Amino acid sequence: MKLLDKALLMDGDAIRRAITRIAHEILEKNEGIEQLALVGIRRRGVPLAKRLQEKIQEIEGTTVPLGALDITLYRDDLTTLDVQPVIHKTEVPFSLHGKKVVLVDDVLYTGRTVRAALDALIDIGRPQVIQLAVLIDRGHRELPIRADYVGKNVPTSKREVISVRVMEVDGEDGASIQDMVD
Amino acid sequence: MAWQHKDLLGLRGLAKQEIELILDTAAPMKDIIGRDIKKVPTLRGKSIVCLFYEASTRTRTSFELAGKFMSADTVNIAAASSSVVKGESLIDTGKTLDAMGTDIIVIRHAASGAPHLLAKHVKARVVNAGDGAHEHPTQGLLDLYTIKERKGRLEGLTVTILGDVLHSRVARSNIWGLRTMGAEVRLCGPSTLLPPELAITGVKVFTRIEEALEGADVVNVLRLQLERQKKGLFPTIREYARQFGLNQERLKRCKSDVLVLHPGPMNRGVEIADDVADADFAAIEEQVTNGVAVRMAILYLMMGGSGSGAVH
Lengths: 182, 312
Hints:
Chain B: Its EC number is 2.1.3.2. The complex is a heterodimer. Chain A is α/β, with parallel strands linked by helices.
């Protein structure tokens, strides 16, 4: 299976603007930063959450706590996968009790990753509320899950792939849509 | 890389990358043990049978908790209360467990090679939890994990394994694992408790403890297997303690940041002095915690990604 680039969805500037807007939306919806915390889903959700943290710091002058969640152990398809996923560390170095947690990921697709992340979070602590921020929502939900903050809605077909690249992981910022070719 | 074996029968023959994969997977597992809710749904619906033909507290409980923390269903079978007493063979017991849909059989047996025999005859994956005086791979792995956690590396370290090597499956798994990972291994004990074949595996053999400890980074003290000492392999326990017991004075020959390990259960005052066993530089309790993490990692690696058609 090969992937062929079809179109660029977001360049670095577009991602930066989307992060800025989401940061403002988070602050508006939660009426400030009290009890606010950000948790990125590994891998690319973590650098995006870090950028949201920096943007919120820029706007409010205060740093909100930041965590990283690995959801591998919570996946519901582990024993059917061909390739075993590598487990990374979950690092949530603050108590989730009573927090307004914003989960951050790059792409929202079937909703299974988010479901796993919700289970993982609730096993660590009991937040007051959990919200979801994603850079791109591509549709095709298999579970009743909806994002609270979306950088860009991109209607896709199931034969397409959304590729988000971030400087911290991939050495560049960008999001593109690709076609699967047999 | 992914785990490519059906079974885990020993550390001999495992590649460096495979050992690294297990140790790397164990690190996030240890975090789970430290949480209030020690449970993840990873192995929900999978069944693990601990088939123990020999007594055990920590290994059996460790495997059972590792399975439970990952939501597998675990069952313990002690040979004394099973059909073994009616004369059922190991292979037939294995086939019975297979027919019940068991995914993993964890076996401890007094006979070296018993897990290998079982693995050949069952569909279930088999984990060796100690076979005779052969191997105890999960103990070896938890020792490697503990050393790496404390020292930050395994390569280039000097590890002295001290005591009753002859009867020790822990020693053998340690030797294979440590050598694969690039550590220097020294063995030390009374010559009657040092099997001659181990000298040719590239380890250094000592009968004087002072020489064996000189500049060592890690000392792994083996349990003197008192139940097997009726063959007169050394004169008295008192003499053994005087000649080979690890105490503070002898430890001064090691590196100043020496790490002391012991697989337990300990004979305090025989192979290890009280004040050594309880010191900060000893990681004996931590080894037990790490044992659960390492076993969780192994269960995960053996059960995850089974679509790959894993091989023997």
